């Protein structure tokens, strides 16, 4: 099995509410919308986020709990702490709930959370140690921890 | 807010179990592994799947239910029904649980489900109506429904 993820599907109670939030208010263009069944949004190269009728998803994939309790977060990366705050403000204006304001993280980044109308959690994040090269390869580097955070235990093995 | 998803983060109970399943048995290369904290895998251009210590994820993002109950599925697309069956067999051999065998779907595709050690559901799917162009744009077309499935209600407006 290749390490490849093509679609993230989440179950929702009312697709019109989903459409109102993501398309009417946040302005997302649908890749496909089948009323009362599913909405697909393209959220990356070759990547879809599908909002599927919850009862139909459960019929296919098995019994399911509540969206808001799911131990899953959807990460939306941006280029600066100011952009994190701006996206959180935009999401709140669109009807999302801010569940954690933008916060300096111990690992050197800055992030906050909002939930969509079903309770799905988005993390809006600035990660100064993450970059994506021209081929789409993600490079993760350990960032010097913020002043308030823990200092990495491992000493550098490269002379300064 | 752009329609962009950079990271899917899921909470897990024991990262060593996660590593054993995805890396040791399925052969996935890690993008970053911080023992007892997080494992990142690259699962698409610019896209990460993060397995994060469940208690730490809950501390950051709020109270969470069980992985297996999450109304979320991770979609792994492949090129044919035979590949669906092969990936399901591979996942089962690696210790995953097949929760739905490969099945001809009413919408024209073929898919099955397995769960990972925490209970996260992967849908392994062949979708003949989905293609990705050279720029990574996803094109979704309605597929002629399978014989056993419901026939789309809307008549074609194009003369045959």
Q: What would the keywords be for this entry?
A:
homodimer; 160 residues; alpha+beta; 2,3-Dihydroxybiphenyl 1,2-Dioxygenase, domain 1; 2 domains; 4-stranded mixed beta sheet; 34% strand; disordered C terminus
Short structural summary:
The structure is a homodimer of 160-residue chains. The first copy, chain A, is an alpha+beta fold and 160 residues long.
- Output the radius of gyration of chain A: 18 Å
User: In this structure, how is the largest beta sheet of chain A organized?
Assistant: 4 strands, mixed
Give the mean pLDDT of chain A.
89
Total domains of chain A: 2
Output the CATH class name of the largest domain in chain A. Answer: Alpha Beta
CATH topology of the largest domain in chain A: 2,3-Dihydroxybiphenyl 1,2-Dioxygenase, domain 1
| Total number of beta strands of chain A | 10
Please report the number of helical segments of chain A.
3
CATH level 4 superfamily of the largest domain in chain A: 2,3-Dihydroxybiphenyl 1,2-Dioxygenase, domain 1
Biggest interface, which chains? Answer: A-B, 65 and 65 residues
Q: What percent strand of chain A?
A: 25-35%
Question: What's the order of the H and E elements of chain A?
Answer: EHEEEHEHEEEEE
- Adjacency order of strands in the biggest sheet of chain A: 1-4-3-2
Helical percentage of chain A = 10-25%
The quaternary organization reads as homodimer
In CATH, the architecture of the largest domain in chain A is Roll
Which stretches of chain A are low in confidence, meaning pLDDT under 50 for 5 or more residues running? 147-160
Principal-axes geometry of chain A comes out as globular
What is the structural class of chain A? alpha+beta
